[in-house]
Design a protein that fits this description.
By secondary structure, this protein is mainly α. The chain has 4 helices and no strands. It has one domain. The protein is elongated and about 65 Å long.
Length: about 80
């Protein structure tokens, strides 16, 4: 019985730790995604990619900012060439 209680406690804590993100991270990602939606020039896209990279550097355990930075860079190179 003791093992079941300990195991359930560990599983619940792991679940909450895995799916909890800071409000600061969520706010930064949300505002940067909005900027991505309005970016029209290569300079705007470069600024958005740099912001995603800064968010990723601040939150080392999150992979999503790096994904979006790479996506923005790929979109920029496809739409505007290597400018």
């Amino acid at each position: 019985m003791k093992k079941v209680i300990i195991l359930s406690f560990v599983l619940v804590n792991t679940f909450f730790a895995a799916f909890s993100q800071s409000d600061k991270f969520n706010a930064a990602m949300g505002s940067t995604l909005q900027q991505l939606g309005t970016a029209k020039t290569p300079e705007d896209m470069a600024a958005v990619a740099a912001k995603f990279e800064r968010i990723g550097d601040a939150e080392k355990t999150q992979w999503l900012p790096y994904y979006y930075a790479a996506m923005v860079k790929a979109r920029k190179s496809r739409c505007f060439g290597k400018k």
